[in-house]
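Human: My hope is that you can spare some time for a protein that puzzles me. I am handing you a single protein, as its sequence and its fold in token form. Could you go through the record with me and say what the backbone is doing? Take your time, and here it is.
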Amino acid sequence: MVFPVLLVVTVSGCTVSPWGGYTKATGQGVTILEWKPDFSYVESYDTVRFYLKVQNQGGEDAENVEAYVTNINTRDWEGNTEERVDFDDLRAPNPFYGTEGETGEHYFELQAPELSEGLTQTYKPGVRVYYDYKTTAVKPITIVNYDELRRLIHQGKTLETGPTTTSAGPLRIDVITGKYIKVEEDPIIPITIHIENTGGGVVYNRARDKDYLIRLDIDTPRGYMTLGRCSGGGYDNGEVTLWEGRETDVNCDLRITNPPKSTVEDTITITAEYGYYIDAVTSVTVKGKRLEHV
């Protein structure tokens, strides 16, 4: 016997902080706290030390964190211009123990480019920080058959669910569905998973050299429903692509396989795994001078 079922879902948003600024990029996930030269005004051939400090301010551990210098001509600047700094993994903040996210620091040493005596030039060296990350969204749901809901209404009771929780990170995930869904003979629940890039950086799969690619895992309540067909967002075997790197919608069917005889509270968990990078720039002015030969 198939019980008509109602699925009750509450959606709540989350607040994010876009990164920006000149020498400092802030946001969720790995953040560039500092990117600056030791001196902002130097002469040709001087050694310039650029200080980089990063921190994981998100809700998950960051893996394979790597940084390298960008936005300069390596034929003009000398030193470790091709250096890639491996910070390994950076642990996330731990609210239970009151600890902050793990940080990483490094100095890049470069030699200011040659300029003719009397000339000055302002350069804007950049840094790119790449890391692997995941974002988890948990959607509370209440599953109830139609007869049980009718009894609750007659008793003056209401069904309530808690807000959606999403781990802090550069992606925001919402699950969108109707407040009440009545299911008859073929109990299929349509949902839309909205994914948005809110971190100010770029989703990038380094291993496959592919922009905007995300691995998506959808975990439904065991014993009551299974995941059916998904489409949209270029969905292919659990992988989706952000449109122009900004956002995408994935439409999925959830099939009720074992309708409950009474009210059941459970969750749908969405896990997105992806690579991500952020950029920051600084400024240094170089004054040309004559190279003295010994």
About this structure: The longest strand covers residues 126-145.
